[in-house]
Write a structure and sequence with these properties.
A hairpin with a 6-residue loop joins strand 24 and strand 25. This protein has a domain of about 220 residues: Immunoglobulin-like, CATH 2.60.40. The chain has about 850 residues and is mainly beta. The chain contains seven helices and 47 strands.
Length: about 850
């Protein structure tokens, strides 16, 4: 079997690399634009009447000699680009419907952008407001992107909407980081010819090489919301793989000497929290975030006494699966500038601040019980170093330290309490390197380490990866390999001293195919040993598996009589266990996407698991598996025209296993109503009805602690989730948001089974009835969260924020309750209220220096 897998992987590599070896270079057209030096900065007001923008040739004649720059064949088109951008959507590579004029200037502090976005119907320009990083929020917006190292892989992107709302993000070889935020200046103005944008982007927001002349990748983009049109200065062809590799070029920036990149953001906050009817705890704290530029390439971020009191609450669920729930990250320090770490699930930032060890019941003495076990570990400090060198080497280093935590034990007879160490002081560290290569390719290295000190388990994961494209970015090969090490301490048992040991595990992933053009295909294989474990700092829901995955697709990006664009795709997946080497499942699937000419869109998907599959993870016990018979499913998603004030998205799907008469139905509807340019309402509701599901219930042990029985049950699971968000924007810098979420899941068992060693379900005398006659496995679970938040950016980078959070939760065995009575019972539960106010002030060395 091992030889078979090895030969299959070698054959796969040969097939997917052969076309790459045979392809020749493909010419990609790149426009050029020159910047010119500014004798004085423009007034950023959205009115393009500054002398700087009026006559670039005259300005160059006056200033070129001061910088020892000689310009040849100066023409207006060299410094001013005016004309029609090229569409990416809806009509790929067609001329934009409106003209645009762009210019770039610079001094030793910043890059300056002016853009006149012509519009033949200025009264139709969409000026929807939104919160920062919301893009256009359904309105028109303008984009400028800088590839400062000209690697054709990395970009800093700045966006301004027609209402003046800013967004920014960065892209590296690891993908987009929409959480990246910098402080920069912009203004917009609707005028008789359309609308105008002015932008001032300080060099502290960018990383760039040293040198006499800066040569950057450059692109401008524009979205016209009413026509659903996205266009670019240098064409972004939807048929081609990649984005930054299709940029134009910015030249003419000479002898830049930017000031020291140093900023300080001190903060103070006050938090009051307490349960309804009980006392409230008040916490006043302060700290600071520091950013220091190390040369022009790197930035050091330090968070002293970090404050996460206003982080959005997690969307809690009742988890019936064998896999850990992965929650989103909302803490700014761990969302900004961290894309270099977000590769192959090796970094899951929620591990930092979690409790990892809890004392077992074995340490309890007679009459003792735990009255408190910690769930979180306080973070003492965070440090992050990120950047990219002139040679295209991306570097990221992150270090966090969490404090020790203690469980509290109480003696029920004496009332005495004692503490037991749960987590020691723990150091989390991750180092990532990525070297950009020609043709949008890269190689990378990463190491993560968690150290807990003597007597506790520590771990280390080392990995390398590569991503190669041919010269035309038509074919791709990528691979990943990782080695995990877990260092277990020595233990004392009743009979002997157990020596410490190290457990090794590995993961290998290889894949490739054709990723551009109308016809595309892909094949990959993933191998994870049963001892591979990156979960001290990463996330991996299940290891001990081997997978083979293939798919092929047809993509049409040219508009036709019915569709603007569409794609069709089909694939085959097969999975095995790594140890023991045995088959587990196969899947045949197909999906598709259609965007109609009226801007409605639709997704269709279907799949089948033919034959019998074997679930080795659901039983939660080594040596057990559950035999799953043939199943199939499918669904569709229908999206309305996103240009409208009211938009909706309907999802309907099903799943069935005829052998067990199992049938699942899922339906959801998401809707958004833009009542005015300042007021948005968003609502989503979903209903999932799982009938006759066969699932794990519990494991029974004998007196020696050995597994006696694995109990499965026949259950109906009904899940209702409601989310509501309302946002009001006073202006582009001030907003208020209300967020409501109710999650309700009912689990009702009607029969139990003993899982046999052959994966079949046998009769059992197990019962879940307790002394009160309650079915203890039946569950009625609710969570209800309400958050009201306010944000005001009173100065660039300086914020006053406030938040009130109300939380409710309940769990009981009343699984046949109706919605009305359920809500009445839920509202009788004690409510947890939290009120927080936070003030932060941004201080930038460059801004202060300009004032004197």
């Amino acid at each position: 079997m091992t030889t078979k897998f090895r030969n299959l992987i070698l054959s796969l590599l040969f097939v997917i690399t052969l076309p790459i070896q045979q392809l020749n270079a493909q010419h990609i057209s790149r426009k050029n634009l020159h910047a010119w030096p500014a004798s004085s900065p423009p007034k950023i007001d959205g009115v393009l009447d500054d002398q700087l923008w009026k006559d670039p040739l005259q300005i160059n004649k006056l200033t070129a000699s001061t910088r020892n720059v000689i310009y040849f064949e100066d023409t207006p088109s060299k410094y001013v680009s005016e004309g029609y951008f090229i569409q990416n959507s809806p009509n790929n590579l067609q001329k934009s419907s409106q003209k645009t004029k762009v210019q770039v200037a610079y001094d030793n502090y910043a890059i300056y952008i002016s853009a006149q976005l012509y519009d033949t119907a200025p009264d139709s320009i969409r000026t929807n407001m939104g919160e920062r990083d919301s893009g256009g929020n359904g309105g028109d917006f303008f984009i400028v992107s800088f590839d400062t190292y000209n690697t054709q892989q990395d970009t800093y992107e700045f966006v301004v909407s027609a209402s003046g709302v800013q967004s920014d993000r960065i892209q590296g070889t690891s993908g987009w980081d929409g959480n990246w935020n910098e402080i920069w200046n912009s203004a917009v103005k609707v005028n008789e010819e359309g609308w105008a944008v002015e932008m001032e982007i300080p060099y502290r927001a960018l990383r760039m090489p040293n040198g006499k002349e800066q040569i950057w990748g450059l692109n401008f983009g524009r979205v016209i919301a009413r026509s659903g049109e996205t266009s670019y200065w240098n064409a972004i062809d939807a048929n081609k793989q990649g984005y930054v590799n299709q940029f134009g070029t910015l030249r003419g920036i000479y002898d830049v000497n930017p000031p020291l990149r140093l900023s300080l953001t001190p903060y103070i906050s006050n938090v009051s929290a307490g349960q309804q009817g009980g006392p409230y705890a008040h916490t006043f704290s302060g700290g600071a975030d520091i950013k220091v530029g190390l040369g022009q390439s790197f930035t050091l971020d330090v968070s002293l006494i970090p404050d996460f009191s206003q982080v959005q609450a997690d969307n809690q669920v009742l988890n019936l699966s064998a896999y850990e729930v992965q929650f989103g990250e909302f803490r700014d320090f761990f969302t900004q500038g961290t894309t270099i770490f977000n590769r192959w699930d090796q970094f899951y930032s929620r591990r930092i601040g979690q409790n990892h060890n809890n004392p077992s019941d074995n340490i309890l003495r007679e009459h003792e019980a735990f009255i408190y076990k910690p769930t979180d570990a306080p973070i003492l400090n965070n440090t992050k170093l990120t950047g990219i060198t002139e040679k295209g080497l991306g570097v990221g280093i992150l270090n966090s330290i969490t404090n020790e935590t203690y469980a509290i034990i109480e003696d029920s007879t004496t009332g005495e309490r004692r503490e037991e160490l749960a987590d020691p002081v723990t150091n989390f560290n991750i180092i990532a390197l990525e070297q950009a290569l020609p043709n949008n390719s890269k190689i990378g290295f990463m190491n993560s380490n968690v150290y807990r000190g003597e007597g506790f388990k520590s771990s280390n994961v080392t990995s390398t990866d590569f991503n190669f494209f041919d010269r035309s970015n038509t074919y791709q090969v990528r691979g990943f390999g990782a080695l995990s090490q877990e260092f277990f301490p020595s233990e004392e048992t009743e009979s002997a001293q157990k020596a410490g040991y190290t457990q090794l595990g590995h993961r290998i992933d290889i894949g490739g195919g054709k990723v551009s053009g109308k016809w595309r295909y892909w094949a990959s294989s993933n191998i994870e040993s049963d001892t591979y474990n990156p979960n001290d700092m990463g996330y991996n829901s299940a290891v001990n598996k081997i997978g083979f995955y293939t798919n092929a697709s047809y993509n049409q990006f040219e508009a036709g009589p019915l569709f603007q664009r569409y794609w069709l795709r089909a694939g085959y997946d097969e999975n095995w266990l790594y140890n023991p080497r045995t088959f587990t499942s196969r899947k045949v699937w197909a999906d598709s996407y259609f965007q109609f000419n009226n801007f409605w869109s639709m997704n269709l998907d279907s799949y089948i698991h033919p034959g019998i599959s074997y679930d080795y993870f659901g039983p939660r016990e080594q040596g057990y598996y559950f035999k799953e018979y043939m199943s199939h499913g499918g669904g569709f998603t229908l999206n309305s025209d996103s240009r409208s004030l009211y938009t909706g998205s309907l999802r309907v799907s099903y799943w069935a296993r005829p052998e067990f008469s199992q049938l699942d139905n899922f339906i959801s509807y998401n809707q958004t109503y833009r009542a005015t340019d300042r007021f948005d309402l968003t609502h989503s509701i979903s209903w999932n009805n799982q009938r006759d599901e066969k699932g794990y219930v519990t494991t029974l042990h004998d007196e020696d602690g050995e597994v006696e029985s694995v109990i499965y049950g026949n259950r109906d699971v009904k899940t209702l989730e409601n989310n509501f968000t309302s946002k009001y924007y006073f202006n582009p810098k001030m907003s208020m948001k209300l967020r409501l979420r109710h999650y309700w899941r009912r689990v009702d068992y009607d029969e139990f089974f003993d899982l046999s060693s052959t994966g079949d379900l046998l009769t059992t005398d197990y019962t879940d009835l307790n002394e009160k006659g309650e079915h203890t496995q039946n569950t009625n679970y609710n969570t209800f969260d309400m958050e009201l938040s306010y944000s005001w950016e009173f100065l660039p980078g300086s914020f006053l924020t406030a938040m009130w959070r109300n939380e409710l939760a309940s769990s009981n065995h009343n699984s046949d309750i109706n919605f009305s009575n359920n809500m009445k019972e839920l509202w009788e539960e004690p409510q947890m209220n939290t009120v927080s106010i936070r003030l932060s002030y941004f201080l930038d060395y460059g801004q202060v220096k300009r004032m004197f």
